[in-house]
Write a structure and sequence with these properties.
Chain lengths: ~400, ~300
């Protein structure tokens, strides 16, 4: 009797699950849309990074739908807020998948975005981080169907090192690394790999944490190094809000040598913290005002027309280029199924996009060798200096920081 | 030698900030047995009160562009209002609750302020330029001395002396000390409990406002959690100094500031990343030797 009850219970459970599944399925089948799911931070601290990239993706969706959609089908976006919380991230990923997402957008950071991306990988769907700079945000950290729209942080450091040595004539560098997050360590690792290779000397290095109330000891040490060892450039690896605080303290402390940083300090919204800032350079995928590429300028104008103002930083842009590549692969494959689409995307080498050439390999689903635009942030505005592409690929050991690069 | 002096002044400047925050936390603990984790968020509010409330990416100074003679009192008033409001809305209904309950409530206040700031001002950190004249440097026999550090140290001394005079000489100050000594007895003798506690919140508000301005002049950066690391280290300072003891809070604040700066300055490069671990090891050693803190408060000792 008891067993029978259990069996009936189990059967009822299966049946009801089936009914639920059936109820969920036709809704998508009926309207025939391609569903894409945003499991991103619509609120909370990470929204500073996700917000504009999500808007840029929406712009691409609108444009694509206006042109007749993809595979003759309209693209429909569904949303789930991660609230900038990693646990909520997994839930958000699951929610958009249940709503039929064929592609899942994850938060612009490996640690925060991975929970949602892992759900997509488990469900056999493609996921893309809106702007994670860690090569783990892809095949190694999530799985073969996961991508990042960004470039590896190491590329940012390496680009600044090569450009700084060759074009600006910097020879003696001091490295100041913000060890609060992995991104900064990776940026500095790229610099530490490339600068000595060029022939430059890293005189000394020091660390701080983003929320340190004061970096006065570091400033004192750098000031001494500038005086005694002819240090002519400071490689700073940091982000906001500690970044503007660090630059203010450095300049106030009398450190006037040029400062290089990764893309994280892009934008002009923070420079009121450092009045009269000059000689500050960052590498970016796209410049908000005055990008050398007309396709980027057009994109900025379209974004501004739709949302009333242009993006704040370069982090809005990369997802647009990635979506162009995804759409191209979907069109070629004739399906949104992950396996054939990923197989085609992995063959892309220097494939043209609105932001320039992009490449993927079966092992690397993030950009590790693309031309970046060096931007000079001075006098309250950004000015593109030139494009720079590193000469040789970054070794895997540097990309995954397998050994201490010094 | 010059280098050491330089580091010492850096250390005293950071220690001053910690001492001011520790005083604010220690004062409330002395009277209310409240470990106020929201104190750091009072600092955040002081800083954000300078700019126009909006989610726009660039900050527009409103109060921040006023002359300092008007700016300082205005920021103090705003932070005092917020501090006293948290007392009236949150802590007064919990007057008879235990210390852990009060502490959890302060966490809740902290969480609400942080997220409130996030909602109103947006997620992106903001930047402002407050009192850039203070960031000029004096060169004194090779010693690089930002005016701001001297102002920070001087402000701390003035506030400490002012607070101790207030507590020792004024009627309200004496009532506050009496309440800290034995709250029930003070009430029997005619001290109005809520008034004294409200006063303590107001004084801690003034201290938080002072820290927010000094800190912002140094960093120029605004974020919804900007006060948290300050409050965390100041809380450690309060424990090291002796819970409930105001001289202890000041000594603890300076000590933590000096230890952190000196470790950052003199640790070998590979170990600098673990600076905070060394700082906290030092704290543990101090507490092993003197479990009640460096300058224990007499009224608290019996309870420990």
């Amino acid at each position: 009797m008891r067993i029978r009850t259990k069996i009936i219970g189990a059967l009822a459970g299966v049946a009801s699950a089936g009914v639920l599944a059936a109820a969920a399925m036709p809704a998508q089948a009926a309207d025939n849309d391609i569903v894409v799911g945003f499991a991103v931070a619509l609120s909370g601290g990470m929204n500073a990074y996700d917000g504009e990239a999500t808007k840029m993706a929406q712009l691409w969706i609108d444009q694509t739908n206006a042109k007749g959609g993809l595979l003759g089908r309209q693209i429909k976006a569904v949303y789930a807020d991660t609230k900038s919380d990693r646990v909520e991230g997994a839930r958000a990923g699951l929610k958009v998948l249940q709503e039929g997402a064929q592609l899942v957008f994850a938060t612009a950071d490996y640690d925060y975005g991975a929970p949602a991306a892992l759900q997509a990988q488990k469900a056999g769907k493609i996921s893309v981080f809106l702007g994670a700079s860690d090569p783990k945000a892809g095949v190694i950290g999530v799985g073969p169907y996961s991508f990042s729209a960004e470039k590896a942080a190491q590329l940012e450091g390496a680009t600044m090192a090569e450009w700084g040595y060759e074009k600006m004539g910097y020879h003696n560098a001091y490295v100041l690394d913000d060890t609060a997050i992995e991104y900064d360590k990776s940026t500095c690792a790229g610099f530490n790999w490339a600068f000595p290779k060029e022939g430059g000397t890293i005189v000394d290095s020091d660390t701080f944490k983003n929320d340190d109330p004061s970096i006065s000891s570091q400033v004192t040490r750098i000031a001494n190094a500038v005086r005694d060892h002819k240090v002519d450039v400071l490689m700073l690896c940091t982000y906001q809000p500690g970044g503007s605080s660090a630059v203010r303290q450095l300049r106030d402390g009398g450190i006037t040598i040029p400062i290089l940083n990764g893309s994280s300090m892009d934008g002009t919204y923070w420079i009121s913290a450092v009045p009269g800032l000059k000689d500050f350079y960052v590498p970016v995928q796209a410049v908000v005002s005055g990008d050398p590429m007309t396709s980027v300028q057009a994109l900025t104008n379209e974004y501004a027309a739709k949302y009333g103002k242009p993006p704040t930083t370069q982090y809005a842009y990369p997802i647009y280029a990635w979506l162009q590549l995804w759409a191209k692969a979907v069109t070629a494959a004739g399906t949104t199924d992950a396996k054939p689409v990923v197989a085609i995307m992995q063959k892309y080498t220097n494939e043209p996009t609105a932001l320039g050439p992009r490449s993927f390999t079966p092992k690397m689903h993030i950009q590790t060798n693309i031309p970046l635009t060096i931007v000079d942030i001075a006098d309250g505005k950004q000015t593109p200096v030139m494009q720079w592409r590193i000469k040789e690929p970054i070794p895997v050991a540097v990309l995954y920081r397998l050994k201490k690069a010094s | 030698m010059i280098n050491f002096l330089q580091n010492l002044i850096d250390a005293l400047s950071l220690g001053s900030l910690y001492a001011l925050v520790a005083l604010g936390i220690g004062l409330l603990f002395g009277i209310l047995r409240l470990v106020n984790f929201a104190h750091g968020d009072f600092i955040t509010i002081g800083a954000y009160s300078l700019i126009l409330p909006s989610a726009s990416v660039t900050a527009t100074m409103v109060i921040g562009s006023w002359h300092w003679e008007a700016l300082i009192p205005m920021v103090c008033v705003i932070v005092i209002i917020v501090a006293m409001a948290t007392d009236i809305l949150v802590f007064r209904p919990l007057r008879r609750s235990s210390a852990p309950t009060l502490m959890i409530a302060s966490f809740a206040v902290s969480y609400m302020i942080q997220n409130g700031v996030l909602m109103i001002y947006g997620a992106r950190p903001k930047a402002v330029n407050l009192w850039s004249a203070l960031t000029t440097q004096i060169n004194f026999y090779g010693l690089r001395e930002p005016v701001l550090q001297l102002v920070t140290i001087a402000t701390t001394i003035v506030l400490m002396v002012g607070l101790s005079l207030f507590l020792k000489r004024s009627r309200w100050g004496i009532q506050m000390r009496a309440a800290a000594e034995d709250f029930r007895m003070a009430q029997y003798l005619g001290v109005r409990g809520n008034f004294v506690i409200g006063l303590a919140f107001a004084v801690s508000g003034i201290l938080a406002a002072a820290v927010s301005l000094l800190f912002l002049a140094q960093t120029g950066a605004l974020s919804n959690v900007m006060g948290v690391p300050l409050a965390l280290f100041a809380f450690v300072a309060v424990v090291v100094g002796g819970m409930g003891s105001l001289p202890g809070a000041v000594v603890g604040g300076f000590l933590v500031g000096i230890v952190t700066t000196m470790l950052q300055a003199y640790l070998p490069p590979d170990l600098r990343v673990f600076r905070d671990a060394f700082t906290f090891t030092f704290v543990i050693i101090v507490l092993l030797v003197r479990p009640a803190g460096l300058i224990p408060s007499r009224s608290i000792v019996e309870r420990v």
